[in-house]
């Protein structure tokens, strides 16, 4: 099994989270009556919509969240073959 590169995965996840964040803010600008945008204020502390400072803060915070998710995912993805091999070939064959 090929090992997953950490840095590439971290950048890809970071960009994915930032694109989703930007689309969410853009959707809120199009239709502010939607109720799903209260999640942004729950996920990002001290976040308020429609200020440039809070938009940049959310963009940076979503990137950091993406890096954290990628670090955890890559760690366990790369650790799995070692754990599976410790339990023997029957686990891998299933």
Oligomer: single chain
The structural class is: mainly alpha
- Largest sheet properties: none
Count of extended strands: 0
Integer count of domains: 1
What percent of the residues sit in helical stretches (DSSP H or I)?
Answer: over 70%
Number of separate helices: 4
Termini separation: 15 Å
Shape: elongated
The poorly predicted ranges are none
Q: Mind telling me the C-alpha Rg?
A: 18 Å
Mean pLDDT: 84
Strand content: under 5%
What is the H-and-E element order? HHHH
Structure description:
This protein is mostly helical. The chain is 76% helix and 0% strand. It has one domain (6-93). It has helices at 6-30, 38-43, 52-86, 89-93. Helix 1 (6-30) packs antiparallel against helix 3 (52-86). The two termini are 15 Å apart.
Concise overview:
The protein is an all-alpha fold and about 90 residues long.
Defining traits:
4 helices; mainly alpha; 0% strand; 94 residues
List the helices and strands and how they pair.
Layout lengths: L5 H25 L7 H6 L8 H35 L2 H5 L1
Helix pairs in contact: 1-3
């Amino acid at each position: 099994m090929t090992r997953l590169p950490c840095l590439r995965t971290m950048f890809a996840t970071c960009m994915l989270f930032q694109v989703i964040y930007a689309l969410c803010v853009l959707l809120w600008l199009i239709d502010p009556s939607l109720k799903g945008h209260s999640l942004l204020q729950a996920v990002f502390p001290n976040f308020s919509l429609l200020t440039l400072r809070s938009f940049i803060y959310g963009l940076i915070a979503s990137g950091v969240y993406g890096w954290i998710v990628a670090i955890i995912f890559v760690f366990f993805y790369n650790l799995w073959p070692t754990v599976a091999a410790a339990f023997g070939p029957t686990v891998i064959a299933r």
